[in-house]
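Entry for zinc ion complex. Fields follow.
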Amino acid sequence: MAVRPVVIWPDDRLRQESIAITTIDDSVRALYQDLVDSMYAENGLGMAALQLGDPRRMFIVEPKLAGRPESAPPVAFLNPVIVEVSDDQQDSEEGCLSFPDIYIKVKRPMRAKFRAMDLEGKMFELEGEALLARCMLHENDHLTGKLMIDFVGPLKRTMIKKKLTKLKQAEAAGDDA
Ligand SMILES: [Zn+2]
């Protein structure tokens, strides 16, 4: 159980394809707990394992957003698959813990239904619209190495790359001091 540093783009680790979870053992449960601790530390709505540098097919979503009580634990999605998405779209700004202070307008389906395994190994389905659909689709993209930066043009991408590279250099310098 620990808050772990979030992998910040650009970083090749964010481009890995995540691997299916076949056994739910202590290491999977520990990964879940690290995701929960790290997501709450950063006030995120969701987080994929790859954002902690771990290429296992898991992401979590904040409980209130997922339609559960605020005091409930974040919802774990293991080996998630998209069951269906709506034809109607939503187009609004999106953030990502791997892109601090960057917001990008991303067009996504208005509704999305997911099927996944929970930490007990049981299958469940969750359908969401608006922000919940956006969040699940965003986290699911991480599992295939896709990032919200892929939705912007080359000019804006270069700008964001410069900004985040500078931020990372500043943080590295701070760590040395
Ligand atoms: Zn993200």
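NOTE: The first strand starts at residue 46 and ends at 48.
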